[in-house]
Amino acid sequence: MVCVALLSNPRSTGNRAMLPRIRSFCAQHSEIFHYEVESIDQIGMALATIARVKPKVLVINGGDGTVQTALTELHFGGHFGDSPPPVAVLPNGKTNLIALDLGARGDAILALERVLEIARTDLASHVVPRELIALSDGGVRPVLGMFLGGAGLADSILFCRNKVYPLGLPNGFSHVLTVLAVFMSLIFGIRAAFLPPRPSEVRVSLIRQGQIEGRFALLIVTTLHKLLLGSKTGINEASGLQVVAVDQSPLALLRAMFGALFGNIGRHQLSGVHLQRGDEIRIEGDHSSVILDGELFRADKGRPIVLTPTPPMSFLRLAA
Known about the structure:
This protein is α+β, with helices and mostly antiparallel strands. The protein has helices at 15-27, 43-53, 64-77, 97-101, 108-119, 151-164, 171-186, 250-261; strands at 4-8, 32-36, 57-61, 87-89, 127-130, 133-136, 143-145, 147-150, 202-206, 210-214, 216-222, 241-247, 273-278, 281-285, 288-292, 295-299, 305-309, 313-316. The relative contact order is 0.15.
């Protein structure tokens, strides 16, 4: 009997070293049905095949693009009818925000062992609902994800991806180096080709809740219950999309960072830190970048990006 279906993308960065261990683990546990794709274009076909074995849990093992494509295909593909299995995400990729939100961290094999342990018992106490962000930019169908970064945050992510990662440094050190570069640019006002650019102006409109406009060091839209640094959003029982925008100001950014460290975001009002929640959000800017779970989109004047929440999808929380 199949308890767990594991969908792996061998081409994701984290799997280059880890996949042999994953394959060995699966070979030792007959309850795991392991399906590997050669590209994310094959994920729809993979899910159609996985649906035939009727797993209790679907585990995604890949980077941000793999997770995003799998969630989008799960929502629109209808492969599991009205009863898709709960989804678990192994810690992989560069940021692991979705895995972190669901309690999966550290070694992927240990996380997979935990999934298998839970799948052998009653899942009910470990299944949690999560809405997804549906992003529409005029394409054929929306793209789904759980974490969108815009404004200065998107510029910093692109800086890290295009300028820092190619140096071949460990992920943790790359992220620290990126944060230092952001601080040099924002706090000391240094402008140079080797530093992140100055954020462009962005207008964020929340239907029926008004709008905020300006240059933001951080712009986050998420349905996750944990943000960067592991801080909670304070919306565990609320629905809709959570928006966090931090003014392009050294003091505002420091307030936001300390608020994240001490869990004050969403609990206390912080000057220069804007928190909103809405059911439809429009982001408009002048070629302003936004990144949804690793995929890049552009918000232009007269051609906004529209975000809406989906009905809740079931996920497997690994933490007790």
